[in-house]
């Protein structure tokens, strides 16, 4: 006997709502799955190149090695759905206080989780979108 379940989900690549027929479906269609795969492979290559540079920079200046190590966490932050204030500041290249001011002015929506302030990744993405005005 075949069951036809319908699970409302959001595509992990484009964010569009769709109805999935299995519990493991992550993308709204074949195109989004292919694009997400290409993006994943691109990020893996970038990550691999960064680790190679860090490994070969043993004889390099300490400043160069430090700057390479600070780039590595930024790529990991791009995959996270929820960010702390510190992580959002690192991703935007701003200070923690700037992010706190944006939250206080309701420019950036955030939620409190105990003592931590959590910011959804889509809120940061929406921060730079304009309505054409």
TrEMBL record:
Domain Helix-turn-helix: 82-127
InterPro entries the record matches: HTH_17, SinI_DNA-bd
Name of one Pfam family that matches: HTH_17
Superkingdom, taxonomy of origin: Bacteria
GO molecular function: DNA binding
Keyword terms: DNA-binding
The protein's name: Excisionase family DNA-binding protein
Organism field: Kaistella montana
């Amino acid at each position: 006997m075949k069951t036809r379940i319908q699970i409302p989900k959001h595509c992990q690549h484009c964010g569009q709502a769709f109805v999935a027929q299995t519990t493991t479906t992550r993308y709204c269609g074949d195109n989004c799955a292919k694009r997400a795969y290409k993006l994943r492979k691109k990020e893996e290559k970038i990550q691999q190149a960064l680790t190679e540079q860090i490994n070969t920079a043993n004889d390099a200046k300490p400043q160069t090695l430090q700057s390479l190590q600070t780039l590595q966490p930024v790529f990991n932050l791009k995959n996270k759905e929820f960010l702390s204030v510190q992580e959002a500041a690192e991703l935007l290249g701003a200070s923690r206080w700037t992010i706190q001011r944006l939250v206080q002015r309701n420019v950036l929506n955030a939620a409190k989780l105990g003592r931590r302030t959590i910011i959804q990744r889509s809120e940061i993405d929406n921060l730079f979108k304009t309505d054409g005005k």
